[in-house]
Design goal:
With 329 residues, this protein is α/β, with parallel strands linked by helices. It has one domain: Alpha-Beta Barrel (TIM Barrel), CATH 3.20.20.100. Helix content is 38%, strand content 16%. The strands form two sheets. The protein has an eight-stranded parallel beta barrel with strand order 3-4-5-6-7-8-9-10, surrounded by six helices. The chain has a two-stranded antiparallel sheet with strand order 1-2. The longest helix is centred in the last third of the chain and has 18 residues. The two termini are 34 Å apart. The mean pLDDT is 97. Bound molecules: NADP nicotinamide-adenine-dinucleotide phosphate (NAP).
Length: 329
Amino acid sequence: MKLKKLGQSDIEVTELTFGCMSIVNDINCDNQNEKDSIQAIELSIAEGINFFDTAPMYGDGASEVLLGKALGTSRKKVVLASKIHGPLKKADVLRECEKSLTRLNTDYIDLYQIHWPDWNTPLEETIAALEQLKTDGKIRLYGVSNFGKQDLSEAIRLGNVVTNQMSYNLIWRNIEKEVQPICQKAGIGILCYSSMMQGLLTGKFKDVADVPEGRARSRHFSKNNRPLVRHQENGFEKETFDAIDALRKICETHHLPMGTLALKWLLAQPAVTSVLAGARNAQQAKENIDAVNSEVSTEILKEASEATEHLKNVSGFNLDMWAPGSRIR
Ligand SMILES: NC(=O)c1ccc[n+]([C@@H]2O[C@H](COP(=O)([O-])OP(=O)(O)OC[C@H]3O[C@@H](n4cnc5c(N)ncnc54)[C@H](OP(=O)(O)O)[C@@H]3O)[C@@H](O)[C@H]2O)c1
């Protein structure tokens, strides 16, 4: 698989990242089996995937622990990304990094990312702590996640940020409006999360009623009669499923799995370094690897852009898929 550099660093990662949120149980993912998760990770390593993304938030540390266990002696062959959230004062950053290192059973993290901005701590202080971790050899690089125009611009001014991990997929294209051009100009790599919109872009849900409650929490969906939804908006369900139906037709015409179109489309967009895909078992992991290794013509990718343009226009500027208001600015 093609390798790309993380930002302007020399560290190279595969275009597909194994996303470790769904290797443990959470709101989108129940009855997850540890054996399936380990097999998915082992297959990915065997197939040449070298980039793994986790966070303490996933399963309250359980994802980091399981990833560390599954990597075993392959740890040094891969590029390991984790995150920090919550208060980001210097002492918090140094302490939480130690905890992640212990859970991951490693003595360094390759890419340490600020999971969400902490507007109560000066970013300068957080960046200074990350620089110290680099000097101490605990991390190799740092990046941000869920940083919009304002926070990203400040982070670029203050530090050596290499990546911005953002929700980006064919039915959630809001980063194109302001953030992607900043990344492109500054040489910041975009790591796309929810690349298949938590399975919606694999075509497994035929209409709105099919989508399980835990996956109908994003702004695409109406708040009405959905107790798990946090945002208080009416959503854009019709436009979302019109777009998914249009993508389904494109894929049927060209004999292409929908997940393949979702992943290959992202990889053709400016500043995108790698697409994060969650896989719950080895079969899904293999399908996602095959998808990224396949070729999809620029004409088909253009059709997909056109099919989702209207949805992009109605979905506004909010980059936060879930919260009331926005935690991204
Ligand atoms: N920075 C952040 O704030 C943030 C937020 C969210 C996620 N992330 C990262 O991004 C990664 C991926 O995001 P995500 O898990 O939200 O979404 P995703 O990758 O779009 O969707 C993953 C889900 O899609 C289904 N799936 C995967 N491969 C499939 C295949 N080949 N065929 C059919 N279904 C398939 C699986 O669920 P089912 O089989 O149950 O349908 C899987 O759990 C996470 O693991 C995490 O590392 C980061």
